[in-house]
């Protein structure tokens, strides 16, 4: 992994400006043009397309570096899908949280079927490094079938508990709102790759907001966000 100086080498703007723009765009209900106006008040002229390129270039790198400090989530997962529009067509965003509301993982899919559900579960297990003890789903049959087949194939323990509970899954349905709140001002994505990168960045900022990262060894207590970000990216 390159050091922080190499990561931003050759950029016209200072890394503090790039990190700030990417962080604010992913966290707050802002458009690229909103950020252009805000940054201009600091005496900097940045094109909205430049900020777009920064998000696409640096969001995956930021995720990789923050994930080194990720805390494990619980092993009781609430799983659900929500809808995201890409090029005017609806796609499916599979998401899971644990019983405390901590984000487990997500996966964007063009389909909502058994294969898509399996792909999400496998991604989430790889990300967490361990499978869940309990999976709570809504009544959609394909997701239930995916879990049953994964137990039969040894991809999940046969003791993994599968249940369907609208009441328990209110937690994940409420959590979708944080993602939708941020995506709504974007007025739809133009392509699948851009959508996947941006949503991954939004999920990262949501996890940071939920305090899902252990930063004790960096000794950053009481430090402002720019200092924390610089330390994580360099650490």
Structure, explained:
The protein has 235 residues and is an alpha/beta fold. Helix content is 49%, strand content 15%. The protein has helices at residues 4-7, 15-27, 32-40, 48-67, 114-128, 141-152, 170-183, 192-209, 225-234, and strands spanning 76-86, 89-98, 103-109, 134-137, 161-164. Strands 3-2-1-4-5 form a five-stranded mixed beta sheet, sandwiched between helices. Strand 2 (89-98) and strand 3 form a beta hairpin. Helix 2 packs across helix 4 and helix 7 (170-183) crosses helix 8 (192-209). The longest helix has 20 residues, at 48-67. The chain is globular, with a radius of gyration of 19 Å. It starts with a helix and ends with a helix. The relative contact order is 0.16. The mean pLDDT is 93.
Give the SSE layout.
Blueprint: H1 4-7, H2 15-27, H3 32-40, H4 48-67, E1 76-86, E2 89-98, E3 103-109, H5 114-128, E4 134-137, H6 141-152, E5 161-164, H7 170-183, H8 192-209, H9 225-234
Parallel strand pairs: 1-4, 4-5
Antiparallel strand pairs: 1-2, 2-3
Helix pairs in contact: 2-4, 3-4, 4-8, 5-6, 7-8
In short:
49% of the residues lie in helices and 15% in strands.
Helix-strand makeup class:
alpha/beta
Give the integer mean of the pLDDT values. 93
Share in β-strands: 15-25%
List low-confidence stretches. none
What's the total number of strands? 5
Number of helices: 9
Question: How many angstroms does the end-to-end distance come to?
Answer: 11 Å
The main sheet comes to: 5 strands, mixed
**Shape designation:** globular
Order of helices and strands: HHHHEEEHEHEHHH
Rg over C-alpha atoms, rounded to the nearest angstrom: 19 Å
Widest beta sheet: strand line-up: 3-2-1-4-5
């Amino acid at each position: 992994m390159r050091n922080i100086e190499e990561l931003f080498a050759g950029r016209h703007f200072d890394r503090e400006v790039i990190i700030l723009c990417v962080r604010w765009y992913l966290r707050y209900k802002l458009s690229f043009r909103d950020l252009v106006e805000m940054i201009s008040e600091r005496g900097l002229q940045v094109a909205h397309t430049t900020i777009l390129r920064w998000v696409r270039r640096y969001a995956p790198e930021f995720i990789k570096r923050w994930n080194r400090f990720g805390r494990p989530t619980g092993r009781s997962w609430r799983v659900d899908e929500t809808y995201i529009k890409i090029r005017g067509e609806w796609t499916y965003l599979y998401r899971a949280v644990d019983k405390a509301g901590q984000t487990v993982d997500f996966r964007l899919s063009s389909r909502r079927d058994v294969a898509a559900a399996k792909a999400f579960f496998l991604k989430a297990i790889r990300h967490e490094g361990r499978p869940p003890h309990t999976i709570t789903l809504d009544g959609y049959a394909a997701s239930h079938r995916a879990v049953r087949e994964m137990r039969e194939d040894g991809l999940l323990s046969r003791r993994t508990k599968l249940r369907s509970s609208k009441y328990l899954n209110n937690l994940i349905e409420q959590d979708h709102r944080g993602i939708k709140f941020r995506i709504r001002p974007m007025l739809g994505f133009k392509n699948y790759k851009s959508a996947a990168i941006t949503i991954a960045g939004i999920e990262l900022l949501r996890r940071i907001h939920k305090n899902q990262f252990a930063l004790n060894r960096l000794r950053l207590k009481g430090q402002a966000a720019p200092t924390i970000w610089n330390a994580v990216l360099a650490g």
